[in-house]
Amino acid sequence: MAKIQLKYADMSPSQRDCFELLCAGFGGVHQLDKIYQCGSGIEMITSESLATFDGNLLTVLVIIAHDRNIRLEISASAPGRLKIKLHKRKKDGAMHERHDSIETAIKNVRHSA
Which of 35, 41, 72, 106 could potentially form a cystine with 65 if both were Cys, beta carbons 3.0 to 4.6 Å apart? Predict the structure, then answer.
């Protein structure tokens, strides 16, 4: 099945929220690769390096995702390429419906570590 490339005008409000997260994290729309539909969310393939400190794109994406209730998933795509999938969530609800705040996520990780 062929991927459906999305333009901003064709995105749902929740897909636009996800797209705007990528714009904020990557430094603008001009820094993004093609955006594709991924169920009710979006996905993008990138060759960017993701790190937590110097070159902190990973940290930036994670914090923005928690602030905006967006589930962010990173997986392998091809050699030297990563797939980033994003889906808008609610603040409350079942596990597959909600997205915790960064404060709750930090508390949960520190409690279990």
Answer: 72
Give residue 49's domain range: 8-112
CA 46, CA 112: separation in Å to the nearest integer?
Answer: 32
pLDDT in tens, 20-70: 999 999 999 999 999 999 999 999 999 999 999 999 999 999 999 999 999
Supply 22's token pair: 């990528």
Cβ burial, residue 88 (10 Å; 0-12/13-18/19+):
buried
The CATH number of the domain holding residue 68 is 3.30.980
Number of structural domains (the chain) is: 1
Q: Per the domain annotation, does 20 fall within a domain? A: yes
Q: Is residue 69 part of a domain?
A: yes
pTM passes above 0.85: yes
